[in-house]
Amino acid sequence: GAAPASKASRAREEAALSVDSSIFDYDGVYDSMKEGQRSIQAKHEKENAKRDPKYMSASFAASEQRKIDRQRAEAKKIQREREQEGDLYENTESFVTDAYKQQMEDIRKAEDDEKKNESSARQKNKGAASFFKEMLGEQDRAHQAAVEASIRPAASTTEPKEESDDNESRRKARIDEARQKGLDVRTNEENEVVDERSLLSAGLNTFSNQNKRQKTESDERSRRNDKDRDPDDLHHSHRKLPEMRDARQAQRERQSRMMEEQMLALQKEREEEEAKQEAERKKAIVGKKRNDTDRIELARQRALERRKNK
Questions:
Q1: What range(s) does the Nuclear speckle splicing regulatory protein 1 N-terminal domain occupy (predicted)?
Q2: What is the number of domains present in the chain?
Q3: What is the rounded CA–CA span in Å between residue 132 and residue 143?
Q4: Residue 176 CA from chain centroid, whole number
Q5: What are 135-187's pLDDT values in tens digits?
């Protein structure tokens, strides 16, 4: 058997139990760990059970749309057949079942929903078009500013000298006019006015507003250009909306025509198969009658031979 625990081992065990009574309960700790794992797993399974299918809703919607398209194709085919018949069955009594009424109501609702979806799509696309218009306008204005900035230095190389000469002549004229009126205008060695107040006090504060006027005219011209340019350059996204709508309508009509052609082809095959079966049935009936006639003739000949032999 196992050797008895020593006194020191028992003392250590008692000290550990005094701190935690379940310190040696390995099975209990293991069960509690597993219980936590099982609770988490059960929680996940419960969540997965409540979760809806990820792609089945779209699949069901597509199947329902195909069913409605097929019904619409059948309704158009029936309407076309009625138009071809004309007044052939005008005086006959017609019956409309509740199922047919419900089917036509479903088709009408589907068409209304389709129109609403197209309208909402147009509204969304309109917002996108406005966004792209603003973005293109910003790019165009930035490009125009860059072009003007590249042109401005070349023009400024020829204008400063003329502008400085004009300013110098105007300044000399102002000084001479002030001195003629008896004002004390002080200048330095370079003939620059030391105190500008001597000119202002005489009422000669008629400074040119040429720079300000030029800036105002430039801003007005740029605003005018932006206003004239936006409608021509930035309406391409609006023009795309009718094209996209027409493309969807054309695709839908092609699908309806293809479905109608398939239905007509199936109906034609069915009629040909029925005609073939009817021809085979008639042929079998004719062959059977011919066999019966031959059998009767043989029996009659045998009967005549028996009479002769008697």
A1: 11-126
A2: 1
A3: 16
A4: 76
A5: 787 777 777 777 676 565 444 444 455 556 677 777 777 777 777 776 666 66
